[in-house]
Design goal:
Helices cover 82% and strands 0% of the residues. By secondary structure, it is mostly helical.
């Protein structure tokens, strides 16, 4: 740079310097500039391999840490799922609890240096993307597993809509009251109405992925109650995410009624267009491979590629429409749920890998971001108990009353109420948004995390007990007849 500048100065000054001297000065400057350029090129030529080598080493170091995280997460997830099943729980419950134990609440508290090395040394991007891709696959798989033919029955359709509405309205109203009156005590720095809105949305959410996983493990995917529950939960969560978008916009003072209404219309239009146009096309394409699927129970690579691409496009579309990408995966699974040969082949060839690899990453890595801090007084634990109680009353009570109004007996209504009370990690997403916006405090965050865990632990043993009672009643009735 200095030589270049000198050359420029000399060139500009040639009019005041005698001709020969000026020419000599310019030649010297140009010669020096040439030498510097050659030296710089040589330096770059020597340094380039070192830079490339350094980049390779950095990539390998990140890869090492990501592989270390994957190893710990997958193995810990398997241990957690095995232990959970031994004690009569869903495998998802074990994976969630293991994720919390691996996080700052236990592992980070007992061995902070080891925790930082394993989970804080590498950038979080790769693991976050893997967890989200796993969630999209899970939602696609949930959509595939359910027989929505049960909804052709008028009673089931009425029950689905009634349960969905009741499980939004009842917990939302209870959460609004709880959040508003507790805000001055638990979140004094937050606006009471904003805090109330976020608590209301948090109590209204149903964990669609966890519910689907539980229904698969309980072999209720083809049972009318299972289909009603997952359909109501899907409606519940779409409305819940729209409410979350609404509340977030209101809190950030960026809400516009026109844009929000347009988003709702676009989501409905996308679902309708998918059923009217995408479903016939994708089913026709799958039909070309139906004989091969029934004969070999293996998915052709071309068919696999097209289905994966369609699933990713659907996920991108729902993201662009303002709701989470996972709903796009679920919608694509619903479009193919009656292709039974494809469903069986997917379950055997891909489903197990999704459950063993991707799902523990999602459940465990999301748990790593949760720090169950300290509720260090009886008063705070009292508020926590009230939060859990109101959340349960809103979901369970709303579903039970709606089911009874639609003609289901008390046992069936009880099962629907318990299923709809499942929350888990979708709940954690909502409360993380609220915490990041500063409308709920650390204590409220912790209470809602505990509520999410409790509502996820309860369903499986209660439903198994209810199903066993129903089976005994049926057997007794058969013996009487």
């Amino acid at each position: 740079m200095l030589v270049t500048a000198s050359a420029a100065v000399v060139t500009q000054g040639t009019s005041t310097v005698p001709g020969t001297q000026a020419t000599q000065l310019v030649q010297v400057a140009q010669s020096a500039q040439t030498v510097q350029t050659v030296q710089a090129a040589q330096t770059l030529h020597v340094a380039a391999p070192h830079a490339a080598q350094s980049g390779v080493h950095q990539t390998e170091a990140i890869l090492f840490l990501v592989l270390l995280q994957l190893t710990i997460i997958v193995l810990a997830g398997r241990v957690g799922s095995l232990v959970a099943r031994r004690v009569g729980q869903s495998a998802a419950v074990g994976e969630i609890i293991v994720g919390l134990l691996l996080g700052p609440s236990l592992f980070g508290a007992l061995a902070p240096h080891a925790f930082d090395f394993v989970f804080r040394s590498a950038p979080p991007g790769p693991m976050q993307m893997l967890s989200q891709i796993g969630l999209i696959f899970l939602m696609f798989q949930i959509g595939l597993e359910f027989d929505f033919g049960h909804l052709t029955t008028a009673r089931n359709r009425r029950a689905t809509l009634g349960v969905a509405i009741a499980c939004i309205v009842a917990p939302f109203v209870l959460g609004l009251g709880l959040g508003y009156y507790s805000a001055p005590i638990l979140s004094p720095s937050a606006p009471p109405f904003a805090a109330a809105l976020f608590v209301a949305v948090a109590l209204s959410i149903t964990a669609l992925p966890i519910l689907g996983r539980i229904l698969i493990e309980l072999d209720m995917t083809r049972h009318p109650l299972g289909v009603i529950a997952i359909s109501a939960a899907a409606i519940n969560d779409v409305v819940g995410w729209l409410l979350l978008a609404l509340v977030t916009a209101l809190v950030s003072s960026a809400f516009e009624w026109k844009s929000f209404a347009l988003r709702v219309v676009c989501v409905i239009a996308f679902a309708v267009l998918s059923f009217l146009f995408v479903r016939p096309l994708i089913k026709r394409f799958v039909g070309r491979y139906r004989d091969s699927l029934e004969r070999t129970q293996q998915i052709d690579p071309t068919l696999m590629g097209v289905v994966l691409a369609a699933t990713f496009i659907s996920a991108m579309a729902t993201y662009q429409l303002g709701i989470f990408a996972i709903f796009g995966g679920f919608l694509m699974g619903v479009l193919l749920h009656d292709e039974h040969a494809f469903v069986r082949a997917w379950r055997e060839s891909v489903g197990r890998f999704v459950l063993v690899f991707f799902l523990p990453i999602f459940f465990t890595y999301t748990g790593l971001r949760t720090n169950i801090g300290g509720l260090d007084s009886l008063g705070l634990w009292g508020w926590c108990a009230l939060t859990v109680a109101l959340a349960t009353i809103g979901k369970y009570g709303g579903a039970w009353l709606a089911a009874r109004a639609c003609g289901f007996d008390t046992g069936e209504s009880h099962i629907l109420g318990v299923l709809m009370n499942t929350r888990a990690l979708m709940e954690l997403i909502v409360i993380n948004v609220g915490y990041d916006l500063g409308v709920i405090s650390q204590n409220v965050f912790t209470m809602l995390v505990i509520m999410a865990i409790v509502s996820t632990v309860i369903p499986v043993p209660m439903i198994r007990r209810s199903l066993a009672k129903a089976a005994r009643r049926s057997a007794k009735a058969l013996r009487t007849n």
